[in-house]
Amino acid sequence: MSSSLPTSLIYAGTFERVMDGKHRVTIPAAWLAQGISEFHAIPNPSEECLIVMPPHEFQVIEERIEQSGAAAPERRKAIRQFYSRARAICADAQGRILFSEEQCSPLQLKGEVVLVGGRSRFEIWNATRWHAVATEEHDSFRNIAHLIGL
Questions:
Q1: What are 68-102's pLDDT values in tens digits?
Q2: What is the CATH code of the structural domain delimited by 14-147?
Q3: Per-residue pLDDT tens for 16-36?
Q4: Where exactly are the structural domains of the chain?
Q5: Where are the alpha helices (DSSP H) in the chain?
Q6: Are residues 107 and 43 in contact, defined by beta-carbon separation less than 8 angstroms?
Q7: For burial by CB atoms within 10 Å, which of 54, 69, 93, 120 has the most?
Q8: pTM, two decimal places
């Protein structure tokens, strides 16, 4: 495990939820019990989901962009895109997070959604899309699990 990641900060599991008409979704109590209620959300540039990360992980991504070795103009473009797409969000007293229409609409995040743990961050998927991706990824997971003796 990376030394930069607090060992107690782990988002694990898959949780089916309903996103209400205001784009709010309830975060699993176990994830909020880790003492973090503030997050940053950004659309995944590679997959059709929303990445949600605590401030520490957001800072790690910032540092990776700065230290990427990319030429200054490319790095500025990446920084611009990263920050323009990111939104600071906070869980309310009921454990719900409110997402923007601009982030939800292109990813078809409404109604049934799935929260997918990803160690130091989690993802929010359209339920139909997630079930298709999970099926596609099953063989890859099984192969890697076999290689590592899981």
A1: 888 888 888 989 999 999 999 999 999 999 999 99
A2: 3.40.1550.20
A3: 999 999 999 999 999 997 788
A4: 14-147
A5: 29-32, 55-66, 72-85, 101-104, 127-147
A6: yes
A7: 54
A8: 0.87
